[in-house]
Amino acid sequence: MWISNKLKSSEQKPFVEAQSVTASGKGGIEAVGSSVERQLSVFSPYGYSYSLPAGEKLLIVSGEGVKAGVGVVMDSSLKKGEVRISNAFGVSVLLSADGTVEIKANKITLNGEVIANE
Questions:
Q1: What is the pTM of this model?
Q2: Residue 75 in contact with residue 40, Cβ under 8 Å?
Q3: Closest by alpha carbon to 93, among 75, 113, 70?
Q4: Residue 40: is it exposed, middle or buried by C-beta count within 10 angstroms (0-12/13-18/19+)?
Q5: Bridge-partner residues for 72, per DSSP?
Q6: What is the enclosing helix (H) or strand (E) of 8?
Q7: Is the confidence at residue 2, as pLDDT, over 80?
Q8: How far does CA 100 lie from the centroid of its chain?
Q9: How far is Cα 94 from Cα 102, in angstroms, rounded to an integer?
């Protein structure tokens, strides 16, 4: 019985914590909270890629000996059903609740044919 108790106590417990990003690069993310995590992988939906700026809050989770970032704090100013894609420089695309698509950018480059509904 003491062997099974010893094995149970050495098992890793699941870990979930929001940590502050301190560095981001090709080697992964570094974040600080109750501990310092280095070379973290960050997971996102298929087709989305991003480079997290320092200071962003990142949710870190672990299981089976692997730690990874799974998301950042979302914009709480959106209305129900709205979607905003934005970056740290103020560029954004908003799909609004009233059907409007709002694009904020210094320059928009179209690469392909533009077809308007006729």
A1: 0.69
A2: no
A3: 75
A4: buried
A5: 58
A6: helix 2-10
A7: no
A8: 25
A9: 5
